[in-house]
Amino acid sequence: MNVLVTGGAGYIGSHVVLALLDAGHSVVVIDDLSTGCSDNLPSDIPFFHVDIRDEQALRACFEKHSIDAIIHLAAKKAVGESMKHPELYFSVNVEGTRVLAQEARRAGVKTFVFSSSAAVYGNPSESPVTEHTPLAPESVYGVTKKMGEELLLWFGFTLVNLRYFNVVGYDPSGRITVPEKQPQNLFPILCETGVGVRERVQIFGTDYDTRDGTCERDYVHVTDLATAHVRALSLDESITLNLGIGRALSVRECVYAAQEVFGEFAVEDAPRRPGDPAAYYANPSRAQNVLGWEAQITDPVEMITTMKPLYE
Ligand code: UD1
Q1: Whose CA is closest to atom 18 on ligand 1?
Q2: Which CATH number, 2.60.40.1240, 3.30.200.20, 2.40.50.140, 3.90.25.10, labels domain 186-217+246-311?
Q3: What's the pLDDT tens digit per position in 33-86?
Q4: Radius of gyration, alpha carbons of the chain
Q5: Is 311 a catalytic residue?
Q6: In the chain, what's the furthest Cα-to-Cα distance?
Q7: Residue of 225, 273, 303 with the most ligand 1 atoms within 8 Å of its CB, for mutation
Q8: Which DSSP helix (H) or strand (E) runs through 224?
């Protein structure tokens, strides 16, 4: 297939591009490079340095390339920033998706794979979280992802809607060389502390009603996630799939795993971060049944080991 990947130079996008090429697909990438990095893309694939809200530029891309399916990852994704700048999130994530959908439909594209998030569940009312767990986003970011899901369905595309849990790691074979800029999530922060870029890691909340008092999350490796996108292209009906490993790790367990990889570093107990749910994890059985997908990398030490070379 000839697959258009929006946000293809980003953290997840660059891994999806590698997985598509590995599977023998052709790839066209659109990215505005606001957070992505073209060094993480093979130099011989068509690349459009374009904002997805730019109707004319998208039209030119579709005129030049005949696209069979779109994997749509271009989006803003920082929850905290989304609360401070809702206008930016509604503009890029919703209006951008609307312009892309319009131009895709005009070009005759039928299939979308959409990068959604567990953020659409908010503080999930049950765990494990299934695709039937009620949607109750608690951030602007989560709302814009929910709107993106609905928008693509109302445009009439066949939509494989992928709700990611906490995505971590890098390509184990070392083909991605530039780490995410200004990371805000736990695993990259652990790596930066492991190599001394940061002085210490703060654990946000140690008095939760969980196994060890710290928050628990479902961490899924980006290479496993990328594989799911490739398999999603073979589906011919719209469906929503949770992508997680089906198991929760506590923040403290992640810290210990990072110390096993990097050696000891300073850790400080800190107050709870406002808005953090105590614990949740995915029920990934629908993705397993429909895609034959199962996460291969489930050990946090192995996950962090794939990240280490990018921080040294
Ligand atoms: C966040 C987003 C979520 C998004 C996901 C992946 C929020 C509220 N949620 O999830 O919507 O899908 O990223 O991009 O932002 N932690 C520490 N110390 C740190 C950093 C994090 O203790 O320095 C803890 C957090 O409190 C949390 C866990 O580590 O319990 C994971 O945090 P993080 O990586 O930021 O992801 P989430 O908040 O789970």
Answers
A1: 203
A2: 3.90.25.10
A3: 999 999 999 999 999 999 999 999 999 999 999 999 999 999 999 998 999 999
A4: 19
A5: no
A6: 56
A7: 273
A8: helix 222-232
